[in-house]
Design brief:
The complex is a heterodimer of chains A (280) and B (274). Chain A has 280 residues and is of the alpha/beta class. In chain A, 41% of the residues lie in helices and 21% in strands. Chain A has 13 helices and 10 strands. Chain B has 11 helices and 10 strands. The chains are: A alpha/beta (280), B alpha/beta (274).
Amino acid sequence: MALVEFADFSFKYLGADSLALKRITLTIDEGEYVVITGPSGCGKTTFCRAINALVPQFHRGYVAGNVYTDGKNTRENEVATFASVAGLVFQNPENQLVTLDVEKEIAFGPENLGVAPNEIRRRVEELIELLDLEELREKHPHEMSGGEQQRVAIAATLALKPKVLVADEPTSNLDPQSAETILEIISHLNKRGMAVVLVEHRLDLVAQDASRIVLMNKGRIVADGDPREILAMDLCEEIGVGVPKATQVYKRLRTRGVELGTVPLTGVELAELVQEATSR
Amino acid sequence: MIILEDVHYSYDGVYTALRGISLQIDDGERLAVIGANGAGKTTMMKHMNGLLRPQKGRVILDGQDTKYMSVAEIARAVGLVFQNPDHQLFLDSVKKEVEFGLRNLGFTESEAEQKRQKTMVNLGLEGFTERSPFTLSGGERKRVALASVLSTEPRFLALDEPTIGQDAHQKSLLAQMLTEMNKRGRTVAVVTHDIEFVIENFPRTIAMADGQIIADGSTSMVLSNDEVIERCALALPQMTLAARALRNVFPEVGQRLTLLSELEETIMGILGGA
């Protein structure tokens, strides 16, 4: 059974004149790292909200088709059902933090779901270690930097033991080094077996971690597959997706008849390919 | 013109957010402020539009000490867009949200309507008129927050992280709008982590760390300073990393490769000579 399945799903927000999602059909399996990208307004955020039933149950509107998360129809089960399956992390961690300290923040979700106190304590300690939050234990969330807040928000989300982490541009408010830390954590969680759905514009930061890129435009999925194959397509530039600089250089060289073989995603990969080409 | 003179500020009396900031911004400038999270960038911007007042030092707007001006007076000259649009948006439709500021500044209903429409087109927000801002994505909400300030075209624009959540196309729309306003004489200051956006659009860069200015000058000079890269928690652009990796093997690769076309020609040169 797929972890997440969109079956011909469409959605239009109340008051909107066009569909935010148009006949989306796709499945996400355990262990995948799926990057969702596309121009602003293409439906990425709505896609995330549909995974855990926020669309259509909190954000209401016109709905057609179905989404099954962990086999349960998001139209027929309460939103709370999905809290422990799909964990959402947003752009602004400060909008997500609700309590006054790290331990309470992590315990908040499982307490609300009635998890036993011993088990909650165990999860809190495990997550403090996993996300390196020890030194933040005594700190008020509003004294923390954005990157620290986002680490706490991720820990709070993981405390519900979700099967898939859905992160909607989790690093866009962070300085580049904090962003890197958060992306390393997400990649590490994926390597430990958690499925990841990550919305991101800056593909140079995440393309090398992804097992799959889903390209959206105007509410539709327009491409879905291996990151290198997707980013090599001219469609990316046509719809305004920010292709990594190294991949752009590869494409420019290709139009001039230079084939580097593999599609590079980073500057270092590009340099290696050039070096290989000269030693052939 | 805005002058900050030895500005100090602490939110709680213990942790000092600004420790002696001095700078001058002339009319018609375009500048970027960079720095790690917690460096004091946002605190400094809030001093420019009077939301925060210095605990020591002075902020002088067009020759007048802002100590003697109301927030409303300052806000007419200086428009600030917050980092988090949710701190700014509060009405139930995009139309109301964007027209609110315009109406407050005394524009008639039809003038406000006209300015709103023009700004929304310029920022790629057509079709969102009746939507509630809270159903929009983060990137879209950010553009609504930008539209509500840009539509009033204040003399001085202070934008905190304007490119968050924006794709390549939206970023270039925004850059174009800021450039046009700048040509009409508006001063533009942005806080950003987006180094490519800085390189492409802002001739002057101010780097901050630990509540102080550690560098202030031409963007190319400030960004070639290794201490700035380190203390501002910047990630080196992929172009720079590629150039460095190439230089390790091909010493002829130049030190200053910043443009895509330069890297492309360099590689053509290397492969041509192979």
